[in-house]
């Protein structure tokens, strides 16, 4: 564990708020006192809490918690962008998910958040050339959270995955900043290609539940993909697509759909 930095801690409003909420949670529900202490209050930095959660959750008979903690600590120290993104993801979840009323909840209870943070460490391993250990992390995330993110995928910051059940993100997929997606979303390929074969999702995109985005296509910034759609072609920025196969049905409806989370789509009938 790294030595705590009081200076960093003093200018980390996200972590400060989490610790305040954890103390209140322990007071309100004493049965959770041990959990809040081990998950939050025993740590000096969010980085330490992230490493603890990664190791504690992903450990198994095949891989000890101690080894995974060392991996996570090394990754977080080597690439500060991992923890920066984790903070942005907490704020994004709090602002966009009506079921989230505290910063504490994503860190302790939301599997979408925890899966994404673990996948960031898997991606670090992938980029370091430690491919087999990265695959192990991918496997454990899938087993534990029902979320399958290939360690080669590039995930931006400010990500909110609501419910997160049955999320699939392929190896060459790129997810931009401030993206929101709901459960059962697939960012996949269209066959057995072994090159750049997965979607590129722009910033500020909202992807509805059950949507399938397939192939090396571009989803423009601040666009909306309606629930249940199958997207096989590029989507222009600031538009809404819906259907199987998906087609443009209008403008995005707001400046950044991922933050508004408005999934209602008004489609005029052919008689209008």
TrEMBL record:
<comment type="similarity">
    <text>Belongs to the transferase hexapeptide repeat family.</text>
</comment>
<protein>
    <recommendedName>
        <fullName>Serine acetyltransferase</fullName>
        <ecNumber>2.3.1.30</ecNumber>
    </recommendedName>
</protein>
<keyword id="KW-0012">Acyltransferase</keyword>
<dbReference type="GO" id="GO:0005737">
    <property type="term" value="C:cytoplasm"/>
</dbReference>
<keyword id="KW-0028">Amino-acid biosynthesis</keyword>
<dbReference type="InterPro" id="IPR045304">
    <property type="entry name" value="LbH_SAT"/>
</dbReference>
<keyword id="KW-0808">Transferase</keyword>
<keyword id="KW-0677">Repeat</keyword>
<dbReference type="InterPro" id="IPR018357">
    <property type="entry name" value="Hexapep_transf_CS"/>
</dbReference>
<dbReference type="GO" id="GO:0006535">
    <property type="term" value="P:cysteine biosynthetic process from serine"/>
</dbReference>
<dbReference type="Pfam" id="PF06426">
    <property type="entry name" value="SATase_N"/>
</dbReference>
<dbReference type="InterPro" id="IPR005881">
    <property type="entry name" value="Ser_O-AcTrfase"/>
</dbReference>
<dbReference type="InterPro" id="IPR011004">
    <property type="entry name" value="Trimer_LpxA-like_sf"/>
</dbReference>
<feature type="domain" description="Serine acetyltransferase N-terminal">
    <location>
        <begin position="14"/>
        <end position="118"/>
    </location>
</feature>
<dbReference type="InterPro" id="IPR010493">
    <property type="entry name" value="Ser_AcTrfase_N"/>
</dbReference>
<dbReference type="InterPro" id="IPR001451">
    <property type="entry name" value="Hexapep"/>
</dbReference>
<comment type="pathway">
    <text>Amino-acid biosynthesis; L-cysteine biosynthesis; L-cysteine from L-serine: step 1/2.</text>
</comment>
<dbReference type="Pfam" id="PF00132">
    <property type="entry name" value="Hexapep"/>
</dbReference>
<dbReference type="InterPro" id="IPR053376">
    <property type="entry name" value="Serine_acetyltransferase"/>
</dbReference>
<dbReference type="InterPro" id="IPR042122">
    <property type="entry name" value="Ser_AcTrfase_N_sf"/>
</dbReference>
<dbReference type="GO" id="GO:0009001">
    <property type="term" value="F:serine O-acetyltransferase activity"/>
</dbReference>
């Amino acid at each position: 564990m790294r030595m705590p930095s009081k200076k960093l801690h003093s200018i980390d409003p996200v972590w400060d708020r989490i610790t305040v909420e954890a103390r209140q949670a322990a007071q309100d529900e004493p049965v959770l006192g041990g959990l809040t202490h081990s998950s939050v209050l025993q740590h000096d930095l969010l980085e330490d809490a992230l490493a603890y959660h990664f190791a504690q959750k992903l450990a198994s008979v095949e891989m000890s918690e101690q080894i995974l903690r060392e991996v996570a600590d090394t990754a977080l120290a080597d690439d500060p962008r991992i923890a920066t993104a984790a903070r942005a993801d907490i704020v994004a979840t709090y602002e966009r998910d009506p079921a989230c009323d505290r910063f504490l909840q994503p860190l302790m209870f939301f599997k979408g958040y925890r899966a994404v943070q673990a996948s960031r460490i898997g991606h670090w391993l992938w980029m370091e050339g430690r491919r087999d250990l990265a695959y192990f992390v991918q496997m454990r995330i899938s087993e534990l959270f029902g979320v399958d993110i290939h360690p080669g995928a590039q995930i931006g910051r400010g990500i909110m995955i609501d419910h997160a059940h049955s999320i699939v993100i392929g190896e060459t997929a790129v997810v931009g900043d401030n993206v929101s997606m709901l459960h059962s979303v697939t960012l996949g390929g269209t066959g057995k290609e072994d090159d750049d074969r997965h979607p590129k999702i722009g910033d500020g995109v909202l992807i509805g539940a059950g949507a399938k985005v397939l192939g090396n296509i571009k989803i423009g910034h601040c666009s909306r993909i309606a629930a249940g759609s199958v997207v096989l072609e590029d989507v222009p920025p600031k538009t809404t697509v819906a259907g199987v196969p998906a087609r443009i049905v209008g403008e995005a409806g707001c400046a950044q759909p991922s933050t508004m989370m408005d999934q209602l789509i008004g489609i005029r009938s052919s008689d209008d």
